[in-house]
Specification:
- This protein is an alpha/beta fold and 463 residues long.
- Helix content is 22%, strand content 13%.
- The radius of gyration is 21 Å and the shape is globular.
C-alpha cells in the first residue's frame, strides 16, 4: 500500500533543506470559484507534534536541513552534557516530548536561532507534581530531536503523499493547548475582567480563565470560565450555518496549564474543559447552542447517515491524542477511523478535512515562526488537507496558521464575513482580525474544484 511513499523516501532520502525563515512561497490571490462545492468541513485536531518531528524527511517539503552529502546540518546544544544533539530517527511508538508554555516557546526559538529545545527539556522540577519536565515520565530530554517517517506513521505519510501537505502551517499562538483551542474556534485567547462583557477582555496566552480543575489544583475556588469575546459560532448561528463540536469521552489529552505530570481529568461532551471550551463562551449560551457540543459517537453516526453539519470539530481523548506519552499508533488509528468514516459517508463528495496538531509539544522544528501580532504565530506544526477536490501530491508552501480554517469557513459559508468587531455586530477588544493578516495564505490554493471528485482511499487503522 505504501510502496510509492517508500520509493520516494529511498530515492530522495530527505526533505528539502529549505529556508530557516518563517515564510514559504509568497502568498498569492487565488480564485474562490467552486469553493461552495464544499458543504462540509471537518477539522481534526491532534496533539503536540512539530512539523519536523513528523515530516522533517518528507520528500519535497521544507524539512530538516541537510548538506550536499545528506547529513543533517542542525545540532542543538545540550547544556548538561556539554555537547549537541542532531536529529535522529526515533522508531519508538511513545515519545516524551518537552514543555510547551509561552516561556518555553521563546527559549526554543531563542531569537530565531531555533536551538533551545534540549535546554527547555532539561529544566529540572522541584518535584514532578504540576511540572512538565519530560524526566517526570521517564524520558530523555534529548528525545525532542527525534523524528518519525513512514515507518512509524505510514497513514499520515500516505495522506500527505496523495492529498495536500502544508509545510508552513504554524500554531496561531506561542503557547499550550487551552489557548490554541480558543484560537481554533474564535481567533483569539483572552481573559475577561467582567462577566459577559466582550470589551473587558485582553490577550492572555498563559492562563485564560482557569478551568475549575486547575483552580482546585492551586487552592482556588473552582468557577466556570467566562469567555465573553466573539467566537465563530456566533456568526454561524446568525447565518443559519450548522456546526458540531465532537468530544471523545475519556480523559483530557493534556494536563491543566501545560503540566505533564498530573492526575488525569475526565472529559466528555458534558464536561467543559481545555479541549471543550465552547460551552464557556457567552455566545454559545445566548444562542442556545450548547447541545451542539456532542459525543464523538454522534459524529460517526452522522457521517454514516450523511447528516454531517456544515462545520465539525473532532477532538480525541488522551490515549488517542498523540500527546506524549500517548501512543503514536493509537493516535494515527483514531485519525484514520475519522477519515475513513467521512470517506465512506454520503457526504464525502462535498467534504474537506483539515488535519492538524495543536502545538509543537517541545519537539524540534527548524523554521522561525513569523510574527503577526503580540500573540504569535507559534511554532510550526503539521497540516494535511484531505478532500475529493484536494490537489494530488501537492505541498503547500504558503504561510498558514490554523486561523486559515476560520478564514476558509467564513469564505465558504458566510460570504467572507469575519469575526471582526467593526462589522460582526458584536464588538470585542481583540487586537486584530487574524483572518485578515497579510501573511496568512488561502487554503483554496489546496483545491482543484474543476477536477472530478476523487474516490475515497480507505486505509487500515493499524497498518
Amino acid at each position: 500500500m505504501f510502496t510509492v511513499v517508500a520509493m520516494l523516501i529511498a530515492l530522495m532520502g530527505c526533505g528539502s533543506s529549505g529556508s530557516k525563515g518563517g515564510g514559504g512561497t509568497a502568498n498569492t490571490t487565488v480564485s474562490h470559484a467552486g469553493i461552495n462545492k464544499i458543504k462540509h468541513i471537518v477539522v481534526i485536531e491532534q496533539e503536540n507534534r512539530s512539523f519536523d518531528s513528523y515530516f522533517g524527511t518528507f520528500p519535497g517539503a521544507n524539512g530538516l536541513p541537510r548538506d550536499a552529502s545528506g547529513s543533517f546540518t542542525t545540532c542543538v546544544p545540550d547544556p548538561k552534557a556539554g555537547d549537541c544533539v542532531k536529529p535522529f530517527h526515533d522508531t519508538s511508538d511513545v515519545n516524551q516530548g518537552g514543555p510547551h508554555s509561552v516561556y518555553v516557546a521563546n527559549v526554543d526559538i531563542n531569537k530565531g536561532k531555533m536551538n533551545g529545545f534540549v535546554k527547555s527539556a532539561e529544566i529540572q522540577p522541584k518535584s514532578c507534581v504540576g511540572n512538565n519536565d519530560p524526566a517526570c515520565n521517564g524520558g530523555s530530554p534529548r528525545n525532542v530531536m527525534g523524528y518519525h517517517d513512514a515507518t512509524e506513521i505510514p497513514n499520515y505519510w500516505k495522506y500527505a503523499h496523495d492529498f495536500v501537505l502544508q509545510d508552513h502551517l504554524f500554531e496561531p499562538n506561542k503557547s499550550w493547548s487551552l489557548p490554541q483551542h480558543l484560537f481554533l474556534v474564535s481567533g483569539w485567547s483572552a481573559k475577561c475582567s467582567k462577566a459577559n462583557d466582550p470589551m473587558s477582555c485582553v490577550s492572555e496566552l498563559k492562563n485564560p480563565d482557569y478551568p475549575p480543575d486547575y483552580a482546585k489544583l492551586h487552592g482556588e475556588t473552582p468557577t466556570a470560565p467566562n469567555y465573553a469575546w466573539t467566537d465563530l459560532t456566533y456568526l454561524m448561528y446568525k447565518n443559519k450555518v450548522s456546526w458540531g463540536y465532537y468530544v471523545t469521552k475519556g480523559t483530557e489529552p493534556d494536563c491543566e496549564n501545560d503540566q505533564v505530570a498530573c492526575q488525569a481529568v475526565k472529559q466528555s461532551a458534558s464536561t467543559p474543559g481545555i479541549f471543550n471550551p465552547l460551552p464557556w463562551f457567552t455566545t454559545v449560551h445566548n444562542d442556545g447552542q450548547t447541545n451542539n457540543v456532542q459525543d464523538s459517537t454522534k459524529f460517526f453516526d452522522q457521517a454514516r447517515s450523511g447528516t454531517l453539519p456544515s462545520v465539525s470539530w473532532v477532538i480525541p481523548s488522551g490515549p488517542d491524542s498523540e500527546h506524549p506519552p500517548s501512543s503514536i499508533n493509537a493516535g494515527q488509528a483514531w485519525v484514520t477511523r475519522v477519515v475513513n468514516a467521512v470517506m465512506q459517508s454520503p457526504d464525502w463528495n462535498s467534504t474537506a478535512i483539515f488535519l492538524t496538531w495543536d502545538d509543537w509539544g517541545g519537539f524540534y522544528d527548524h523554521v522561525v515562526p513569523p510574527v503577526v501580532d503580540v500573540n504569535g504565530y507559534g511554532l510550526r506544526v503539521p497540516g494535511i488537507v484531505i478532500s475529493p477536490y484536494a490537489r494530488r501530491g501537492f505541498i503547500d508552501h504558503q504561510t498558514l496558521s490554523q486561523d486559515a480554517y476560520l478564514k476558509f469557513i467564513e469564505d465558504d459559508f458566510l460570504g467572507s464575513a469575519r469575526i471582526d468587531p467593526k462589522t460582526d455586530g458584536r464588538p470585542d477588544s481583540r487586537p486584530d482580525v487574524r483572518e485578515n493578516a497579510t501573511q496568512l495564505g488561502d487554503l483554496v490554493a489546496d483545491f482543484d474544484f474543476t477536477q472530478t471528485p476523487r474516490a475515497p482511499e480507505i486505509l487500515p487503522t493499524h497498518p
